[in-house]
Fold:
Amino acid sequence: MSLLPPETIEFIGYVAPRHTSEIHPAEGPPIDRDYLKLLAQAHEWGGFDRVLVAFHSTTPDALLLAAQIGAVTERLGLMIAHRTGFTAPTVAARQFATLDQLTGGRVAIHVISGGDDRELAQDGDHLTKDERYARTREFLDIARLSWGAAEPFDYAGTFHRVARGFSEVKPISGIPVYFGGASPAALEVAGRHADTYALWGESQAQVRDLIGRVRAAAAPHGRELRFSLSFRPILADTEAGAWARAEAILARTRAVRAARGLGPAAAPQNEGSRRLLAAAAQGSRLDTRLYTAIAAETGAAGNSTALVGTPEQVAEALLAYHDLGVRTFLIRGFDPLEDAVQYGRELLPAFKALLAQHGRAAEAA
Structure:
């Protein structure tokens, strides 16, 4: 899968190695191979373009999970989360290029620098946020050289120094770089290196503002970025049924947190979570379909805002973000397997039909 043309629509799902979410506490071994295979194939059968394989300091390795997902699917793209700083850039570049070759060009990398000092300390990382983003910039400098250089190269940075670096294995047609982070240091790296800038599910006003700032950061580098937005769609046959389901998920989230002895969520350290909480402070229902109550309950720990309604209503909400410049939608459910199937059967077709209708109306105007 090469870099996407600017107007191409992309849907990304989420594959984890066992059944878990805010309403389903993790149980059993950390890897359930049958579940991993079933969830990956459900996304492929449902028409998703890629799936995110997440990174956390205590969970199974994302790169190896992605390799297994690639082995049990035929065309599904892989967006592999990679936290910079723990694997030498030249080594990581060869790993991703190797997997890209083995999967026929299905690899993308979601570069993360880490947003919580406590989690980073679990892997022995104690740099400041700005230092981590500076290290990420160097990582991407070197990775891109490894993927593209025809001759050995040298690189001298603050965190990485390479003498005559070179990779015999190259990606088939380029490895797309997805990147998130809303701090000033993050935006500088995004403008320089991101192919797709990833936002969490914010209000339309917030998305409009942040897209403008990212485009401004990319302009000095002569680059135009794609934009991705992440949501947790909650669907039902009727609008009332969807909102009832949303409230039930919130109640279940609270019950699970209470059973685990979790008190009020700690104040987040990353700017993305702070932006979600700022949206939640405006109300639990924004822009008609945006539901922020679960983000507020969990301290916006990750992608935790929902779009609520029938498939057609949620498709309309996605189209409103499309009109702001978003071309990639990362969607996952609170019931991961069942929701992935429903998205493939109902939401993706509804959105594509609405987008086609929207395009015809624009041509006729």
Q: What stands out?
A: The chain has a mean pLDDT of 94. The chain has twelve helices and 14 strands. Residues 10-364 form a domain with the TIM Barrel fold (CATH 3.20.20.30).
